[in-house]
Amino acid sequence: MLDTIHYTATFTISIPARTLRAPARIKQAPCAVRIAIESYREMIAYLGDRDPTTHRMLEEILASEEEHADDLSSLLEGMKN
Predict the structure, then answer these.
(1) Per the structure, how many domains does the chain have?
(2) How far apart are CA 7 and CA 39, in angstroms?
(3) What is the biggest distance separating any 2 CA atoms in the chain, rounded to whole angstroms?
(4) What angle do CA 6, 29, 19 make, to 5 degrees?
(5) For residues 69 and 32, what is the distance between their CA atoms, to the nearest angstrom?
(6) In terms of pLDDT, which residue wins out, 50 or 21?
(7) pLDDT single digits (tens) 25-47
(8) What would the 3-class secondary structure string for 12-36 be?
(9) Domain membership of residue 72 as a residue range
(10) Is residue 42 part of a domain?
(11) CB 55 within 8 A of CB 44
């Protein structure tokens, strides 16, 4: 059985349910968020000024992912204490 963790509408990561519990899943999440952030940055760079609408949309998604990364960082920091 796999638990599915959705980070964005563009990709999904599946982790075996019996190997990770909630705290471990949270600790794994920043890696996936970093991958998403880097992917959006690459897409924005690739587009350049050729498609301003898509460029703007990707920048908004990137901002959301960066906010998500900050939230996860805060959550992990709180788990240490």
Answers:
(1) 1
(2) 13
(3) 47
(4) 90
(5) 10
(6) 50
(7) 777 788 889 999 999 999 999 99
(8) EEEEECCCCCHHHHHHHHHHHHHHH
(9) 21-80
(10) yes
(11) yes
**3-state SS string for 23-74:** HHHHHHHHHHHHHHHHHHHHHHHHHCCCCHHHHHHHHHHHHHHHHHHHHHHH
Question: Can you tell me the distance from the alpha carbon of 20 to that of 27, in angstroms, rounded to the nearest whole number?
Answer: 10
Contact predicate 2/18, CB 8 Å: no
In a domain, 5, yes or no: no
Q: Look at the pTM and tell me if it is higher than 0.90.
A: no
Average pLDDT value for residue range 65-76: 88
In a domain, 48, yes or no: yes
Who contacts 3 (Cβ-Cβ below 8 Å, separation ≥6)?
Answer: 14, 15, 16, 17, 20, 25
Residue 2 lies in a domain: no
Q: In angstroms, what CA-CA distances link 62 with 14, 25, 50, 81?
A: 22, 22, 18, 29
